């Protein structure tokens, strides 16, 4: 049997990783400034994370949601405290796509309406409703296109008003910082106005924090830069530091009932242990503040690179925009400078998504490598 060939692969085979250092099968070390799509939030093989998972695996790795799991309660309590979202309830699942799928489904249940508003260059996952709300024709099959979704320009409040007042909208979904799309953001004024209009029109506001959550933006959640409170918050990627885990935070005004949502693997013992380890390291090592400070330092360093048109994003969810496509630059950074970066739907944006415990020295190393390839 062969693998289904859907990924274009770089000729690199990682076999070990520690911190932001990834080592391949030939012994070559690479610095990881991408974290596998913002997944590695506290560094590869963090000792506390490894210890937590090993200890949990010695006890019990999995059982279904038909029994008591105190780790889920511990996780919900810790997450509420650190995020400032104690007036939400937690539903755990396995991925960002599944989180957004459940968020959209719950909004439709709650409002008894069917249409969704999403935004251009947004990415919400590859499952049925999540991919329909994603602005990418290439990954939307005819089956997905049956969903009722209106994709609007980001920050166009007039277009938004025209749609939300038609009476059939169940949810508005947007990323506080677009990931795959290329680090564009809603303005605070736009975010606040759509939140108010959603409330007025019995529409749930979903903040897709799959990539921007868990401290990456310099606050626990990206929406917290804009002084709003979403009805549902979707989370994944950095919450498990590589262990597959996702979830939604659901405002307490939305009521649960048995069977409304469900999952086989979501919230299993190992997933809870992984997420608790991440939360503990974020708190103990003050990594959210570190992300905020290093985001400022990163912006200062870009002044040394005249080819950079602008820096996009916040904290350690960053993009460098050039006036050329960056695919070749990414290859040079991997094979000449031995460091990983990311691309975006906007092919002129280089994405930087490192672990939140990097240092100024790591940023200096990145910019020195970038200068070497651009000069």
Brief descriptors of the model:
375 residues; alpha/beta; Aspartate Aminotransferase, domain 1; Aspartate Aminotransferase, domain 2; 2 domains; 4-stranded mixed sheet; 14 strands
Describe the secondary structure blueprint for this structure.
Blueprint lengths: L13 E5 L2 E4 L4 E4 L2 H4 L8 H13 L10 H14 L4 E6 L2 H16 L3 E5 L8 H5 L16 E4 L4 H8 L4 E6 L13 H13 L3 E5 L23 E4 L10 E6 L17 H16 L2 H15 L8 E5 L2 E5 L5 H9 L3 E2 L8 E4 L7 H15 L1
Parallel strand pairs: 3-13, 5-6, 5-7, 7-8, 8-9
Antiparallel strand pairs: 1-2, 2-3, 4-10, 9-10, 11-12, 12-14
Task: Describe what this molecule looks like in 3D.
The protein is α/β, with parallel strands linked by helices. It has 2 domains: 14-46 and 286-374, Aspartate Aminotransferase, domain 1 (Alpha-Beta Complex), CATH 3.90.1150.10; 47-284, Aspartate Aminotransferase, domain 2, CATH 3.40.640.10. 34% of the residues lie in helices and 17% in strands. It is built from 11 helices and 14 strands. The chain has helices at residues 35-38, 47-59, 70-83, 96-111, 128-132, 157-164, 188-200, 269-284, 287-301, 327-335, 360-374; strands spanning 14-18, 21-24, 29-32, 88-93, 115-119, 149-152, 169-174, 204-208, 232-235, 246-251, 310-314, 317-321, 339-340, 349-352. The chain has a 7-stranded mixed β-sheet with strand order 4-10-9-8-7-5-6, sandwiched between helices. The chain has a 4-stranded mixed β-sheet with strand order 1-2-3-13. A hairpin with a 2-residue loop joins strand 1 (14-18) and strand 2. Helix 3 packs parallel to helix 8 (269-284) and helix 9 (287-301) packs parallel to helix 11. The longest helix is centred in the N-terminal third of the chain and has 16 residues, at 96-111. The model has no long low-confidence stretch (mean pLDDT 97).
């Amino acid at each position: 049997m062969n693998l289904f060939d859907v990924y274009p692969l770089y000729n690199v085979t990682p076999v070990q990783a520690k911190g932001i250092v990834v080592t391949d099968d030939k012994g070559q070390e690479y610095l990881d400034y991408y974290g596998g799509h913002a997944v590695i939030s506290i560094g590869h093989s963090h000792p506390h994370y490894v210890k937590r998972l090993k200890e949990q695996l010695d006890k019990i790795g999995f059982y279904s949601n038909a029994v008591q799991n105190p780790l889920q309660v511990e996780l919900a309590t810790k997450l509420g405290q650190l995020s400032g979202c104690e007036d939400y309830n937690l539903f755990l699942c396995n991925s960002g796509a599944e989180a957004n799928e459940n968020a959209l489904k719950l909004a439709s249940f709650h409002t008894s309406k069917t249409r969704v508003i999403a935004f251009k260059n947004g990415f919400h996952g590859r499952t049925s409703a999540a991919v329909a709300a994603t602005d990418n024709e290439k990954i939307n099959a005819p089956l997905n296109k049956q969903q009722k979704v209106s994709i609007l320009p980001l920050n166009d409040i007039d277009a938004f008003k025209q749609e939300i007042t038609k009476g059939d909208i169940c949810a508005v979904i947007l990323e506080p910082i677009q990931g795959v799309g290329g680090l564009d953001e809603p303005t605070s004024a736009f975010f606040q106005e759509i939140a108010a209009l959603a409330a007025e029109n019995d529409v749930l506001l979903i903040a897709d924090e799959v990539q921007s959550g868990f401290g990456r933006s310099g606050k626990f959640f990206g929406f917290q830069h804009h002084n709003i409170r979403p009805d549902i918050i979707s989370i994944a990627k950095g919450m498990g530091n590589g262990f597959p885990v996702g979830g939604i935070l659901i405002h307490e005004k939305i009521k649960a009932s048995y069977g409304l949502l469900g999952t086989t693997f979501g919230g299993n013992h190992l997933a809870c242990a992984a997420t608790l380890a991440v939360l503990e390291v974020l708190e103990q090592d003050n990594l959210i503040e570190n992300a905020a400070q290093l985001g400022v330092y990163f912006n200062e360093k870009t002044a040394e690179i005249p080819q950079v048109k602008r820096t996009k994003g916040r904290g350690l969810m960053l993009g460098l925009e050039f006036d050329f496509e960056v695919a070749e630059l990414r290859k040079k950074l991997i094979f000449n400078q031995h460091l990983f970066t990311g691309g975006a739907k906007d092919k002129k944006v280089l994405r930087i998504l490192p672990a939140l415990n990097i240092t100024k020295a790591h940023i200096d190393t990145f910019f020195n490598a970038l200068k070497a390839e651009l000069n």
